[in-house]
Amino acid sequence: MRLSHVVIFRLSTYHACEGSSLSQAHPETLSFPGNSQSSSGRNTSFGFKTVPEEEKETLVKGVFDSVASKYDLMNDATSLGVHRLWKDTFVDSLKPGRKGPMRCIDVAGGTGDIALRILDYAREKYADRETTVEVVDINAQMLSEGIKRFKKTMYHYTPQISFHEANAQDLSPLQFKDDTYDLYTIAFGIRNCTSIPAVLREAYRVLKPGATFACLEFSRVNNPLLNVLYDQYSFSVIPLLGTILAGDRDSYQYLVESIRKFPSQPEFAQMIRDAGFTTGGDHDGGAWMDLWGGIASIHTGVKV
User: Fold this and answer.
1) What is the per-residue pLDDT across 107-136, written as a single tens digit (0 to 9) for each?
2) pTM of the full structure
3) Could you give the CA distance from residue 242 to residue 226 in angstroms, rounded to a whole number?
């Protein structure tokens, strides 16, 4: 593949839950899809609050509209900066490019930090300049931050990277076809989705047989002392940092609460299996790998 081969970053916009036609826009001109509405009558969690399912998407969008320009700073605050090491470990564990070029989809990956790590890893470790990553996010402002990031890299305007605005729970089968991808990644994003099972079902659908689903997410701390210290930091310090660094306490409070509402490692592993994936055993080093005592975990599953 020649480096002179140029394509335009693609930002596909459509209503999250309505099968409307797709459109494409230049990355500097982002459009926002309308919010989908439903009358399911079901409730879900928004942090520690209970809200109708159809409202959560709008509420989460408001949070990430607020924090998009300071997303890395937000992750630094919630993880004491360790999220950068966790993301490195996440990508290293997947070894993209080891078996040849891959077609990857990175969901809830708007800012592009996982996609950039995947492409750098494949290039630096295996001299692979053919692996591609399609970054998918429901939030156009997050995608805008990712496009800015990639403008500073060698991958900008190459076929190796593209950005798409879409709902992880309801990917368009016209664009995100069945049995297409070699690797599906989602980092620190699945807990913000209204229906985790729906996200997992879509992941299973778009992956090729034998391909890997990989999720990096905040999880349950398994050391009682560390858990107490982490809780104190999370609920006392992180919202305060949100006020000081971003002028937004409420968004940071939600992010802390959303971490506590996320299923435990065994519960999430079972959800992955329920979607059709096969996993390792229900223990650290099996279905998941704990990072820093379970503050975060890497979950993987293989499509059979």
Assistant:
1) 999 889 999 999 999 999 999 999 999 999
2) 0.81
3) 22
